[in-house]
Amino acid sequence: MNGSIKIILIATMALTLFSSSGCMSMMARGITDSTGGDKNEIYPSRHLAKAAVQSPSWLTPLALIDLPLSLAVDTVMLPLDAVRGRRPKMDQSVLAADKKPLTKEESAKVIEAAIRKAAGSPTGGFTKADLEKVTKLDLRLEKLTDVKGLEKLTQLTGLNLSFNPDLTKAQIAELQKALPKCKILSNPTK
After folding, report:
1. Is the pTM of this model over 0.70?
2. Exposure pattern of 157-181 as b/e (b: 16+ CB <10 Å)?
3. pLDDT in tens, 143-174
């Protein structure tokens, strides 16, 4: 093979590897930003990889292969994260343990906040009209332990409860009965 062809092939392979690596890091940042998640979290790809291992799917092997590259991207992104507001708390190490599962009361508060955001109702009680405005809700990666309150969302057509490992199959089944028109994405292990 010609020397210039070898260089072009090597450059193409290197560019492909570089552009497809660290995907989990960017995806985790996108999820955190779009769902209003905890921006004090550093090394977000590590949390996403843990969630993928706790709730295995066909993407789990890809997540594990991508993890070293994503950690490298996370390391490079640390200064940018500091500027954008993702600062570690004083007592939080880079490898701090993940958040514990929420209590039922904390789960209710997270659900209420998500409903308020989706309904555009920042304060006060919910009216029937407020609840009917909510057609889609994303509660993935929230560490929920309870889904109480979601059954009131009668116009809900899409609900993402993925990567909430403490939710049970029974809770999801009961919620699906209450919301038959809703497509619920979840991966309970219990």
Report:
1. no
2. eebbbbbbbbbeeebbeebeeebee
3. 899 999 999 999 999 999 988 889 999 999 99
